[in-house]
Design brief:
This protein is mainly β. The protein has four domains: about 130 residues, Immunoglobulins (Immunoglobulin-like, Sandwich); about 80 residues, Immunoglobulins (Immunoglobulin-like), CATH 2.60.40; about 80 residues, Immunoglobulins (Immunoglobulin-like, Sandwich), CATH 2.60.40; about 80 residues, Immunoglobulin-like. It contains no helices and 36 strands. The strands form seven sheets. Strands 21, 23, 24, 26, 27, 28, 30 and 33 form an eight-stranded mixed beta sheet that branches. Strands 1, 2, 4, 7, 10, 11 and 12 form a seven-stranded mixed beta sheet that branches. β31 and β32 form a beta hairpin. The chain is rod-shaped and about 165 Å long. It starts with a strand and ends in an 8-residue tail after the last strand.
Length: about 375
């Protein structure tokens, strides 16, 4: 609807189609609808015409229809943000800065002339203010492709170039002319908080977290304390992994054994060997390298071996060798003859020259053990009679 008043005629109401002028009177808006980004500046462009015999007295924008049409430039909510870029001849363009959702209205240009001519055209310019929201799947799996969308509540009037941010850092290589960000073959490094903005604007959307799930990686075993323990003690092994979601299932294995020897993130090793763990989540599993556990103990299974025969002829000797199972290996050995309190020899081997029952003792820093006794028999040489 367009309304004009000119003397000496009374007030005349003209029903018009927008953009069609009544005689020489009219206002033409470049856009009847404008979608603008929150906190941006909006240009509302228009031109106006009037009879040449009229002179413009006042030209202004308003958001009210009715008997009164308050000038927006005199409204405290607009006065600091509104700039009239037009003139009092034909151009009626304005700039409105730092728009918010409160500015969503229909706006109209009005002018008056010195001959009491008045004109306002409806519909005017309808302003919609939008913010930006990132639409993203909450969770993706490593290796998948994912598309993030920067959404607005209306189609932006100005040509928009979108910029993407991850963890507040711009993804300069991801700038695009549309509003989507495509991440192909997602990696765990792609996880983070994503936000979007328009090139040339300060407003940035709220961030949305992209969670990238993946199977266990970098699985390793940590040893609490020393990997060398004494028999009867234990060493605790802890399985560590990098995974999302965190691994909750762990299996422990001893090398050269097919079945698991334990479960849980920690494992108490009681014996020597090489141990490794496997970490599991719903996306897969991975095993660690093996670590070596050494259990030190005193000599066990100490025994004496006889080289050759235990029956010898007087004047000869028989060699006895002491054997033991220990960690670290026994290096000190003592030899005894039954019913004698003091040692009769040392070293891992001993030469027996006389009959008796002999045993050895093997020693390391953790203790000692004696063997069972073995019997050595020395026979006299046979006499040779003369012929």
């Amino acid at each position: 609807m367009s309304v004009r008043m000119a003397p000496p005629l009374p007030l005349i109401f003209l029903i018009m189609i927008h953009g069609v002028y009544s005689a020489d009177w009219g206002v033409s808006y470049n856009h009847s609808h404008i979608c603008a980004l929150k906190d941006s500046s909006v240009i509302m462009s228009c031109t106006y015409t009037y009879p040449t015999e009229h002179q413009i007295m006042k030209a202004f924008w308003t958001k009210y229809l009715g008997e009164k049409h308050p000038d927006l430039s005199e409204d405290p909510e607009y006065s600091q943000r509104l700039q009239y870029l037009g003139d009092k001849e034909q151009n009626c363009t304005i700039r409105l800065s730092h728009v918010t959702h409160k500015d969503e209205h229909a706006y109209y240009f009005r002018f008056t002339t010195h001959q009491n001519g008045k004109w306002i055209t409806v519909p005017g310019v309808s302003l919609t203010v939008t913010d930006l929201q990132v639409e993203s799947p909450e969770r993706v799996t490593e290796g998948d492709s994912v598309r993030l969308t920067c959404k607005s509540s209306c189609t932006l009037t100005d040509r928009a170039t979108f910029i993407w941010y991850r963890n507040s850092q711009p993804l300069t290589e991801r700038r695009d002319t549309n509003n989507q960000l495509l991440l192909q073959s997602v990696r765990r490094e792609d996880a983070g908080r994503y936000s979007c903005a328009l090139h040339g604007h300060t407003y940035i959307s709220p961030a949305v977290h992209l969670n990238v799930t993946y199977p266990p990686r970098n699985v390793s075993v940590f040893i609490t304390g020393s990997a060398e323990i004494v028999e009867g003690d234990s060493v605790t092994l802890i399985c560590s992994s990098d995974s999302n979601p965190p691994a909750l299932n762990f299996s422990w294995f001893k090398e050269n054994q097919s079945s698991a020897v334990g479960s849980g993130q920690s494992f108490s090793a009681l014996q020597s060997g090489r141990f490794y763990c496997e970490a599991h989540n719903q996306h897969g599993s991975q095993r660690s390298d093996a670590v070596t556990v050494i259990v030190e103990d005193p000599p066990r299974n100490v025994s004496v071996f006889i080289t050759g025969s235990a029956e010898i002829v007087e004047g000869d000797s028989v060699t006895l060798i002491c054997s033991s199972d220990s960690n670290p290996p026994a290096l000190n050995f003592s030899w005894f003859k039954e019913n004698q309190s003091s040692a009769v020899g040392s070293g891992q081997s001993f030469s027996a020259l006389q009959s008796g029952r002999f045993y050895c003792e093997a020693h390391n820093q953790h203790g000692s053990q004696r063997s069972d006794a073995v019997t050595v028999t020395v026979k006299g040489r046979a006499a040779h009679l003369p012929a």
